[in-house]
């Protein structure tokens, strides 16, 4: 098995203006990924939508994050959790679009993708072609999956 | 050599040049378009590069006692806050009053005032405001009166001690006033202003506050012990805060300056929290603690001290002092009243730090008029009371106010500038009236 970007590339849908949070959640949940690319009205790759960002800004006021360890089952905010969730998934994506993070070309080595993820403190990176068009994304989980499927047999672990 | 001022700068009198640099710096700080530390450092650089000061003289103008005290306390607070002690006390106090809304408002304000006096008011509100939003959310009451009261409590509490508010640190350092001097002279009046303020808040909002039994029960179910994230760190922090407070109280007997005590406290807490860690972990911990120092404030102070030293050197502050004395006719009572009211109104509108930095040398230069440094004490207390309490006058009057407003806005409760000022400014004026009477009766 080859260890290059192509081998771990995950093709995804692209998010456009007018789409909903539900579209992001559905695709991310299906592919087990954390982010999707956003193309603006001019059809240009201009941003990204991340699950973390959507969750943070739609579900978690700053003071709750600050006091995370104090939150418990008695909280009134969990009473209408389902209704709140229904409201969030029908929100348009635009307010949640973040700036585009660094991208990588499909021809670059995989180790560079890993290094860039580490540098940017993310677990994914968008892959683009020579024209800057989005091709898919590489995730740290995807790389781990490919590594774990390599043929080498490990020595027996006595503790198992 | 301590003096170096070019006699002419590009054909201009250095007095004019330094005044222009000073006024532009002030104006830029007020407009808040560019970060204040950048403006102050640029202004300081101009004072040197235009020949108003040389580098040696400029460095002599920096008050390292103020910087050391601020930095040391910032490190102590940065480490202590990780233990969760502030949130523990806030939740514990809310439960002590059986989650009654007015009781909680009073207790959170009291806690804010106490912590603001012993640590600093910015960190205090940074930690109390989230608890307030959480509790008022659960009680289903509007957080505005709570946050309003906490803003006032933080500035009143900060007024009470040497370390509570930057103006006091600057005045204490410049005049060599101890922690006990502030405690003895300013704390008594804050003990009167705080309950009066709370009484007014009660009549405006407190008596109308109600919460359902079920909502109160939610508060009672909070487990304040969960706020303590690191019990060992909590003990270490409390020990160091106790020792530092003791140090401040006995600074005179120990022959130590406040900056030394704060810096030693910071070093001790760093040591205690680094023991049993490897070299890399220690470096990371120390780096993280130092990174939490508000460097913007520290560099703002450095630049400001140099700029003020520049105009002092060029003679502007002497001229201003003479103008103030001409206005008050050299009468001590009138001068004290002018200082307390002017500094309160000024501090309500713009940052009180540049104002106090400018006023310190002005007041110092009045000593010959009033018969020595000892006779200036009413003026120092007037400046401290005016500058600290004046911060309550508007949303931009103090950093703590802006932090509370920021938290509220991000939680969906915008505090409007004018709405706040309509209530806060008269309340601030009332506190200044009480402080003026106190200064008059006690010192004049």
Automatic annotation (TrEMBL), chain A:
It comes from the Bacteria. The keyword Protein biosynthesis does not apply. Transmembrane segments: none annotated. Residues 96-153 form the CBS domain. InterPro entries: CBS_dom, CBS_dom_sf. It holds the Pfam family CBS. Gene3D superfamilies: CBS-domain. Signal peptide: none annotated. Keywords: CBS domain. This is CBS domain protein. The lineage of its organism: Bacteria, Pseudomonadati, Pseudomonadota, Gammaproteobacteria, Thiotrichales.
UniProtKB/TrEMBL annotation, chain B:
Residues 26-386 form the Citrate transporter-like domain. The keyword Transmembrane applies. Its main location: membrane. Pfam families: CitMHS. One of its GO terms (cellular component) is plasma membrane. The chain crosses the membrane at residues 15-31, 38-55, 67-92, 104-132, 144-163, 183-205, 233-251, 295-320, 332-360, 380-408, 420-441. It is a multi-pass membrane protein. InterPro entries: Arsenical_pump_ArsB (IPR000802), Cit_transptr-like_dom (IPR004680), Diverse_Ion_Transporter (IPR051475). It is found in: Cell membrane. GO terms for molecular function: arsenite transmembrane transporter activity. Keywords: Cell membrane, Membrane, Transmembrane, Transmembrane helix, Transport. Belongs to the CitM (TC 2.A.11) transporter family. This is Inner membrane protein YbiR.
